[in-house]
Amino acid sequence: MLNPAPPARRPRLALRLVPTIVPALMLQFAAGGLAAQSAAVEESRARADVSAVLDALHEAASETDFDGYFSLYAREAVFLGTDATERWTREAFMDYTRARFDTGTGWTYHMLERHVSISPGGSTAWFDERLENANLGETRGSGVLVLEDERWKIAQYNLTIPIPNEMARDIAQRIRALKGG
């Protein structure tokens, strides 16, 4: 007679580990979910902080608050104005702005729409915003903010006047004619 096969043995070690592994995996998944939730909260907070800096920038410019205005710029900031030749270093822009603000003349822009993005790691932000100005009409501000001394600072601000596509060719020709080209 042939020897019957021994009964199948269950691995006892695996059975002992299941009650330990499953809760540990559940905790790991929960922690991963909490970390993702925490990162989303931090990113949302950073977006709100960046938006508050931009709001303060527009308010300070409207109120001709020189110190408040430039406290929002990074040390190496650049401001790009609406004219193609306007690329202002922070120092040059401070000179221009001081002369304007000293006469009580600032500029007022009302935000219509704003989009803010935060880099992975959370040390850089970029934005674009639609603005309304009494003299220029609808404009667009865009730029970059960096964390400097643990505060968001504007590293670059670019102010443009969006031109409707239907008018772009005519405007480009008028600019060429103005420049003699």
Your description of this structure?
This protein is of the alpha+beta class. Strands 2-1-6-5-4-3 form a six-stranded mixed sheet. The chain has one domain: Nuclear Transport Factor 2, Chain: A. It has helices spanning 12-62, 66-70, 90-102, 165-178; strands at 73-80, 87-89, 110-118, 124-133, 137-148, 151-160.
Q: Identify the strand order in the major beta sheet.
A: 2-1-6-5-4-3
Number of strands: 6
CATH class identity: Alpha Beta
Quaternary class: single chain
Structural class: alpha+beta
Q: What is the gyration radius calculated from CA atoms?
A: 29 Å
Low-confidence stretches: none
Content of β-strand: 25-35%
Shape designation: elongated
Which fold name is given in CATH as the topology? Nuclear Transport Factor 2, Chain: A
Mean of residue pLDDT values: 89
Domain count: the total is 1
